[in-house]
Amino acid sequence: MTANEATPDTRARRSAAACAATRTLHRSPLHIPLTERFSALAAAAPGIVGADEASDVYGDGVVATLEERVARLLGKEAAVFFPTGTMAQQVALRCWAGRTGNATVALHPRAHPELHEGDAFTAVSGLRTVHPTDEPRLPTADEVRDFPEPFGALMLELPLRDAGFVLPTWQELEAVVEAAREREAVVHIDGARLWECTPHFGRPLTEIAGLADTVYVSFYKSLEGLSGAALAGPHTLVEEARVWLHRYGGRLFQQFPTAVSALLGLERVLPRLPDYVAHARVVAQALHEGFTAAGVAWSRVHPQRPHTHQLQVWLPYASDVLEEAALGQAEETKTFLFGRWFADGPPGLSVTEVTVTEEGLGWTADDVREAVAEFVRRLPR
């Protein structure tokens, strides 16, 4: 997704409109006042950690508790907490490069490290990347099996966010992992949003993560934590990763607010994700129906049946036109339907991402269609 920059004025308007909205499909933590977030975390902490539990120091205490919880959830021997997923994945793949003797990583060209991390794999960690496919989906088993040069690791982003939060079928995922094994490559899952993949696959987290040698998960993208990530895998690799965590500057003195917020997400948000996914499918259908009924010449809701609780909406207008319509609707009606729009693809085509969480569960299909009609009314005809 092209990262066209919004002006400071647009960002301020969007933030103010989101904070003031009385109806939204998803209320981002970024739009909750700072003091309210502090208070909520402090109020919830006694239910997550012991009242007299000591604070963490360099990764012990509540951070170690979080690591043990993640390892159990993913069915891995061990896990290590990282301040960022960017760091976690660099460390994981450079550790694997040392073990396999091959620093080449096969991944999708729209995977997060390729689009959003400033070429960190190459510039910082000495890794080289190759692309088995450039189709807007994960690679197939044949594309992995027949790729013309060797690679040490196959990295699979589940779901592939910039292609529309898309996932393969379970059978396709098994096949692509087997193809990598045939090539004696390790498999690493970029699971920043892995938590919400279980409804699509119809499998528990342990079984999904069990296909890979290592898995990275995020605590803020779906679980509404403050920040942070974890890398899970074999005990020996995790212990090596701890060494590199220190070398990369990620061994922080104290991290208890982040760790508590992550545990809170695992306790309260994780069990709700299947409900969000189910309702995202209702919302997606209603969005499609709403644009059709409003007479928009062309629109695309992608995927038509979302694989997770997130999806894309594409419209044939410039991004600034769509931004103004969305902001006008939010400011005047207090209904925040769409957030930021991005220019992507051919000129005049723009895309936005839609996320359905707790606030969205209260929307009926009729509510969505009515909001779409109000949004379209603000577009030039």
Automatic annotation (TrEMBL):
InterPro entries: ArAA_b-elim_lyase/Thr_aldolase (IPR001597), PyrdxlP-dep_Trfase (IPR015424), PyrdxlP-dep_Trfase_major (IPR015421), PyrdxlP-dep_Trfase_small (IPR015422). It comes from the Bacteria. Keywords: Pyridoxal phosphate. The keyword Transcription does not apply. Residues 56-289 form the Aromatic amino acid beta-eliminating lyase/threonine aldolase domain. Its cofactor is pyridoxal 5'-phosphate. Belongs to the threonine aldolase family. This is Threonine aldolase.
